[in-house]
Batch of 4 targets.
Target 1
Amino acid sequence: MQAISNKLAERLGDAPTVVSAEYKGREDGSTMKALAWFGASDVRLIDAPVPDITEPDDVILKVTGTTICGSDLHLYHGEIIQLQKGDILGHEFMGIVDRVGSNVKNIKQGQRVVASFQIACGECSYCKQKLSSMCDRTNSSGLQNAMYGHRDAGFFGYSHFTGGFPGGQAEYVRVPKGNVNLLPIPDSVPDEKALFLSDILPTSYHAVVDVGVKPGDVVGIWGLGPIGQCAARFALMKGASRVIGIDKVPARLLFAREKSGIETIDFTEHTDVVKRIQELVPGGLDVAIDCGTFHEPKSLLHKVEKTLMLETDVSETVNEMITATRKMGSCGIIAAYAGYTNHFNIGALMEKGIRLIGHGQAPVHKYWHELLEMVESGKFDPTFVVTHRVALEEFPALYASFDKRLGGVEKVFVETKFSAPKAAGTPSLSRVEDWGTEIYAV
């Protein structure tokens, strides 16, 4: 798939951008540790050049905190197209400003900052509305342009389909347009809280806001990874009367019940999810949100079609949401889908008057300041979802464990040699191999 997509992308050519994805290394030849993709289920820690200022709007960060995201597993399995061997991964990170380009006036050396996972130009019509994920001018993928009719902003560490920018699962990272893509963090907010302003907090909050959760609503959330767990709490904050989480991982189901007090459905026990929801909520959900994944089909039909590349994504969750939601209700998709699906229940969508909303990649800049205020005031503490802390060197084993959902993993804080000591009340440093009885061969 990668060879075909890269060949097609080469034939289509690059779309014009105002930034370059490539960076130059430092004159002294110094290197850093970084995690790179080399094939399906093959990620490796490599020595890569330490980035230097390449364009005058650049900022170079010493990474003090990074993490793994559920959507990174799509890369791990090679399901996102235009991956190339040696691509540095990671789109959630923060750090200390190491070097600043000549055009950057609002960010200073030594500041603590968090990066948005998207690279916005700050000047196009979308950026002026703070819709940073929709930026028109930073993603060079002509293939995405052809498939979607338009293209998203460039993203860090998420294949050449999103611009080919090296990511932040590394000791250093170059941030193009650093004057608009970095948020200064006050000393009162530790890294373990600030890091998640890069993605999971804006993403989960955007889903709840965009789908229109209001007081009294009964909300169903498919997928209880970090996005689903945070979305459940944000839905309750918006006044939802009930939140029902759907997943199959016992640790995640227990986590949701104990940490957030929501109801849960184990879809391995209740294989007919729609029937179970209708038993719990006669008349149906008011709102449904897909916070899950497309790479784990449940039915044999979708497993076969996906294996044979007759579809790239599966429609099972969306179909369940549509049929489990009341007439004239709303369904939102914040889970990362990439291509095409079969057997979509378009009839139920139309006949029931369902409002089906593709939330898009979350416009981080739109919510940054509001969410930082929530975190700083204690109104929302993202550390509830942080279950583990590991060193950068653990990344290959972490991917293997996270993929299998072993050891009760929800969100992991990954430290580098530049990280501060852990904040009070957060997990201590551990080794992946110590999380359970399994040994991770990587």
Target 2
Amino acid sequence: MKENISLGVIIGNRDFFPDKLVGECRSDLMEAFKKAGVKPIMLEENLTKLGGVETFGDAQKCAELFRRNADKIMGVLVVLPNFGDEKGVAETLKLARLDVPVLVQAYPDDLNKMDVARRRDAWCGKISVCNNLYQYGIKYSITTKHVVHPSDPSFAADLANFVAVCRVVKGLKNVRIGAVGARPGAFNTVRYSEKILQRHGISVVTVDLSHILGHANRLTKEDGVVKERLEKIKGYSPTGRTPDDKLIQIAKLDVALTHFMDEHALDATAIQCWTSLQQNYGCNVCTSMSMMSENMLPSACEVDVTGTLSMYAMQLASGSPSALVDWNNNYAEDENKCVLFHCGNWAKSFLPDIEISTAPILGTTIGEENTYGALAGRTPAMPLTYGRISTDDPKGIIKAYVGEGMLTDDTLNTFGTRAVAAIPNLQNLMQFICKNGFEHHVVMNASKTAGILQEAFGNYMGWEVQNFN
């Protein structure tokens, strides 16, 4: 879910331009912030000339304000109602030491107000500000239009996207992921580097699957926490033909997983699902994973840590749940459509016809009676952002790809959690995935946020990212 965020605001000024432009700018910004749900942190009008930043002294005052509110500020908006003082802006950010995304906006001139008393020259000033930020090594974003008024719909979209970029960057730099159990032996594809992730602020907390199963087995159906969780499960999804004893098993496992997450303050999990869970405990963990993902605590199967990291990033960008899927099948002869599939762990936001069921493919080898807990459901037509984060160990980097398409209502007669995706240039995308060693797992989100993710991953996280949008 999206929450209001705080942005630091720097209003640039230059002494030979009319000061009233700064005052008018504050009023324009407050209206834009109100619509966007942004809480501004900026200089009071009496601390500098109308609260603008021009001199080094102004920069010191603004930087000190930002440092006092460093725990609140997720990004900084630089606004140029006139040419502005490029050094004042750069010095403020240097002294504040926030290391957050920065968006640079500049006002357009009115063709009928180009006299000395009313001209802005912010078109030129923005170039100078960006030049100085580049020299200082400060990462920044720019508006879609080179100059744009805060009341323009284009700026409203830019501001909303920038807020999303701020959420993604802050979230990724502090995320804690639980790796539950060992990677399934046959799945080399989900191997990853904890060390590379940690270098980027991403922490992984591991636990042996036996620890979770031991905790679950010590619980009984009479325990209050189990009864409570059982009711939540029944309220979450129709249970179909799932026997009561299997529902209790699922509830006990869910209690153990929740305890592990709470104990370590985890934001996401990646869980060893098959085949150890089914053989040693007797059910699937898909229902618990779906409930966690729906509640914005994304959970990926097969201990796909960078898969759940991708889910978390997309969730931050869109404010809605994500799902881990397989690039699974062609769709008839259509080269720009494919089938997305998994045994049954998608958040129910993707599954209006959700039902707790079994995993038929697993059941062929370990007995279908041991696979209750997998969900079944068909995802209807909705927007699609897809993407994947991966550690590239030989190169020592984090890399990613993102793109957009649509989920469709095309006929699909199969089981599990399933969807049909229409993606432009799908064949080129598959070539890229195969040639660059990406996993068979991808993440889907019901949004159009590829640009947000590209900006966050590439510009601010410093990752290698390809946008197929």
Target 3
Amino acid sequence: MSESARSIPGFCRDCLKEQTAPARRCLACGSPRLLNHSELYQLTLAHIDCDAFYASIEKRDNPELADKPVIIGGGKRGVVSTACYVARIRGVRSAMPMFKALEACPDAVVIKPNMEKYVSVGRQIRAMMLELTPLVQPLSIDEAFLDLSGTERLHNDPPARTLARFAKRVENEIGITVSVGLSYCKFLAKVASDLQKPRGFSVIGQTEAVDFLKGRPVTLIWGVGKAFAQTLERDGIRTIGQLQTMEEADLMRRYGTMGQRLYRLSRGLDERTVEVDGEAKSVSSETTFNDDLSRPEELVQHLRRLSEQVAFRLRKSALAGQTVVLKLKTADFKLRTRNRRLESPTCLADRIFRTGLHLLEKEADGTKYRLIGIGVSDLADPALADPPDLVDPQASRRAAAEEAINKLRDKFGKATVETGYTFGGRRRGQ
């Protein structure tokens, strides 16, 4: 082996020992999980993605599920939220209708999502990320970008080893696994994190970026979905390598601002920084029905329950929202959204529900719906929320009653107290 190959930096992802000579296994612990790359200790931008997040948490909490295919999703009319890798091998994919998922994997264990549990675990992992660097940009509950520039002295290690140590810590303390992508830009860091799932750690350096991208499909580029990919294919463009041979002006003439993105990302050019102000812009909850519903009283029952869930999440997150958004999906999958801005922010289920009810009245016209959701946007400080209502004197009484109910539920569980709108709903089936 050449001297240059011998000098490529690397370490073992299990014991973190430096590798001083080429080998297939760690010279210290024997692990095959070695990481080496010529730019390994120069790169600082990472994308961390939890592996099959919801399913991994359920398997962690129930060891009997360890080797079984697990699908997280709704009932027979719902869709797959996520699936473990055993189920994915059988052909199950996120957003797949549940009946198709069960056709592909009939022996799967289907578990209804427990969002409160998943959010709690997500927050634990987010807190661990913030111990590495303040530059953390969440993309969702289970993934984020991190910029570890300037952290080497803080952690006494280059970012690559700090990230490997983080992955081990999540696995040991939280009980699930993550995959890490390390690069010089956000686009390729995210691409890298998908390369070796689960428990992956992939590196894409600047010197190899163009060659790495050359043979990849255009759908690898952010924003190139199914419809746009078909447009590109009609123009004879299937691979990123083809984009690399085209001029920026030509691409912009054909595809507008998207053409500029195609030009830059196809060459690994991405100057976006990690933004730390990526907090949630809304809080919502929705449900897919087992059977289509059209009767107002049935829709109202779900609307009330979902409003309570949204209010609970607002309280736990110390947030309030000023715009209420109603979401409905018809039996033929057409989406309807309606919203109303309140005079002041709210974190009360009563105000969310009553506003949503007003919006629902116009839509409950006999149309059959397969899904209903309610949420709030324009998030604000809860200190500004729910001032006394001079127009509706009963609002203060309802707010006081809601506060009393919340205290009982916090102490004895959510099923302790139910309103007339939701009473018996779980027993009738949702």
Target 4
Amino acid sequence: MLPRKSIIPEEFAFSPALVSPIHRKPVFRDRVNKARFIAKSGACNLSHKNIREQGRFLQDVVTTLVDLKWRFTLVIFSMTFLCSWLLFAMFWWLVAFAHGDLNPTRKLGVEQCVTNVNSFTSAFLFSIEVQVTIGFGGRMITEQCPTAITVLILQNIIGLIINAVMLGCIFMKTAQSHRRAETLIFSRQAVIAVRNNRLCFMIRVGDLRKSMIINAVVRLQVVRKTTTPEGEVIPIHQIDVQTESAVASNSIFLLAPLIICHVIDKDSPLYDLSAMELQCSDLEVIVILEGVVETTGISTQARTSYVTEEIQWGHRFVPIVTEEEGVYSVDYSKFGNTVKVATPRCSARELDEKPSILIQTLQKSELSHQNSLRKRNSMRRNNSMRKNNSMRRNNSALAVPKVQFLTPEGGPNLAVT
């Protein structure tokens, strides 16, 4: 839109040279809130709908049980054992019924298949004793029934399988790799600033535990909606982004918090974006940290993402690692703190085409820094002069005054009191 003409005529308006420039933030149209592909916690913001082949989940029972929520896993765990005990209790009751052990008028001297199994309740208790190998001693199997021996062997085998599957699922659920990722942290904001005369996209990662992540690798991806020249719309177009650590080696040494830097060059998807255009774009930068846990040897992965509102242009992370009494100390209270630095507002492409923009920006920053130092020095001088003047006034007020006395002869007599 073209700006409206001023109501005041130009000849009565103030000269631009007399008016100090006021830097105003550019006003953009309201952008519809875009759904995040990856949440800040690392969870994938993806919903699966209209899955017709639900039976595929039953083909991998272990993974399905591990992926379930804890309340469903515990219910399935309890119901599996309870149902197996009830099933084999029914088998023991049928064995006892077929042998006549439940008949109160059975012949004396005829030994039971299972001693002291006279009802379904006693059969259920014997089923629990067999499967969990408690063995209280009140009920036991005899040699009278080969069928009972077969049921005993079958229950032992099935019970071992159930124990292995259920306990294995519980162990895998408690030792999942994403539990270790809870102590891998990312900075809340990402920054774009000049490093080594190049515009760079930077984030900070850290590990709160002393046990290290072996072979840690950080990958960056830019996700945005794109349209191909043929007119095909790709809602989630993933573009790999190269980092400095990936160029030098395949892994990082995550001993202390590190700043992961991506140089915005001609191969970067951020190459044509300026500070204003970045705020209007719908891109999302996904950060993936992968490695092997040193203590368990299990692979782990931590994820997060940064939308345009979480990318600060012209900021830099403050240092948090200091040396204190021969030990390197990390202050995690300043983990996400940034400081504003001189950074051109143009895109990396414009900066490559006109290197003088960077020089002018740095020179202006140096001049403003010198001016601020001069103002501070002048203010300190003024404050010191005011303090000296006030001290002199106080000293003069405390000085002893001279009092003049008149003698009877009328001559003056000066005395100091």
